[in-house]
Specification:
heterodimer; A: 109 residues; 11 strands; B: mainly beta; 7-stranded mixed β-sheet; 55% strand
């Protein structure tokens, strides 16, 4: 059973637009929800993370929205830039980490 | 800036050969993961260790893969014998779990011909 479901698989956004990636999780015991950004040839790098006691966390142009009752969380990238073009993974963690299947984001100049 | 170090970065080998990948986790981290990444499968968990003890290696083909952590500064992943279907990027990641981020290395790109 897939513990974390991520959508969409790929996303194309115009420069300056908003990119939105969604994730849903199964296990209510998860209590840490990070997003990772991966560029070609590199390992995934932590972008932003949230714990379930808050509904939103913002760092610069990146915002996580968290809905505990729906067991869903999403990443919003405001004013998307070509440099944001990368693969994004959501994850959910307790004692173990479970990753989504990734979203390939392309920001068109 | 502490980081996870993986060696080698690239490995090309022939089918049937033994492959050893190494990882130096960040000092003080208590958990080490091995992942395999392919275009089709995303990030696939192979094995992980907590305080050097193996906790889960159900993602590994046991007949050919083995993972060990001989000391706190070294984790190894071995494939013997290697097969073309093992071609992928293998990532090591470490963290102080639970509820803290994982830090990834830059991976070993394995090509088995």
């Amino acid at each position: 059973q897939q513990q974390v479901k991520q959508s969409p698989q790929s996303l194309i956004v115009q420069k300056g637009g908003i990119s939105i990636i969604n994730c849903a999780y199964e296990n209510t015991a998860f209590d840490y929800f990070p997003w990772y950004q991966q560029f070609p040839g590199k390992g995934p790098a932590l972008l932003i993370a949230i714990r379930p006691d808050v509904s939103e966390k913002k760092e610069g142009r990146f915002t996580i929205s968290f809905n505990k009752s729906a067991k869903q969380f999403s990443l919003h990238i405001m004013d998307s830039q070509p440099g944001d073009s990368a693969t994004y993974f959501c994850a959910a963690s307790g004692n173990q980490f479970y990753f989504g299947t990734g979203t390939s984001l392309t920001v068109i100049p | 800036d502490a980081r996870v170090t993986q060696t080698p970065r690239h490995k090309v080998t022939e089918m049937g050969q033994e492959v050893t990948m190494r990882c130096q986790p960040i000092l003080g981290h208590n958990t080490v993961f091995w992942y395999r990444q392919t275009m089709m499968q995303g990030l696939e968990l192979l094995a992980y260790f907590r305080n050097r003890a193996p906790l889960d290696d159900s993602g590994m083909p046991k007949d050919r893969f083995s993972a060990e952590m001989p000391d706190a500064t070294l984790a190894t992943l071995k494939i013997q014998p290697s097969e073309p279907r093992d071609s992928a990027v293998y990532f090591c990641a470490s963290g102080f779990l639970p509820n803290s981020p994982l830090h990834f290395g830059n991976g070993t790109r394995l090509t088995v011909t």
